[in-house]
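Possible regression after last week's pipeline update?

I re-ran a chain I had predicted before the update to compare outputs. Posting the input and the new output here so someone can diff against the archived version. Not blocking, just want to make sure nothing changed silently.
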Amino acid sequence: MQMSILISNRASLMGTSDTLALSTVFDALMEKRLENNPAALDRYYRPVVQGPGRGKEDAPPPATTEAGASKAGAGAPGTPGAGGAPLPGVAVVAAGPGMVAGAPASAQNISINMPGAPIPVEDMSRKFPLPSEPLFQFPPEYGASMLNYFGKIRRQFTRTFFMETLTPGKCPEGMTWRNDNCEATIKVAWKFGEKVPQGTKTYPVDAKLIEKLNFDPGYMFIRIGGDILALEKDTGKIADAVLNLGKPT
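New output (post-update):
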């Protein structure tokens, strides 16, 4: 059933990526699945086109006797024909989980379960990441971060924002264009849990980025070269950071 859904919606799902090679892959999968059912395989390659419905004058009279009603109700729900037998040439699909037998296909609630555990979604309106989100592993020279403030999603969002607002060949102040990347002009030896070293040249963080990430008012944010630091407003200590802006990783 899932394969049939994918095949019937292949054009809308794949768009211009839909190729003959992909069609061959789908056919091979269906042939493997239906190898023990020649009739179903024949319907797959030569589907039966249903003719126009008959008018009321051509419809058979309804069963009125108790025997007739019993016989008509003997079949499974939603299966046409006497005794529940399917009509010749018409494929009957059993109702799967979340599907109601006898209901039109357009009304079925179809769910395709993909393998693997779902990725936890972080609400961007949160002040902090999800508790289940692991801490980012920083190089030993920076020490351990005081707070998992940026998290995985906000960290990636920050890097993407920086790259999208970057002009190739031209870097923000405090950085220089080298090897097709923006690199920090001066390396600053800062550490988590400490204040920014005295005399360090710092730069403001784009106000649009701060607005999009809904930063907590208890922290302030500065840029040192290619690093964005989250500082505690009360103590000025470095709590969390996003490293190496301008580089792919």
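Follow-up from reviewer: compared with the archived run. The radius of gyration is 31 Å. Marking as no regression found.
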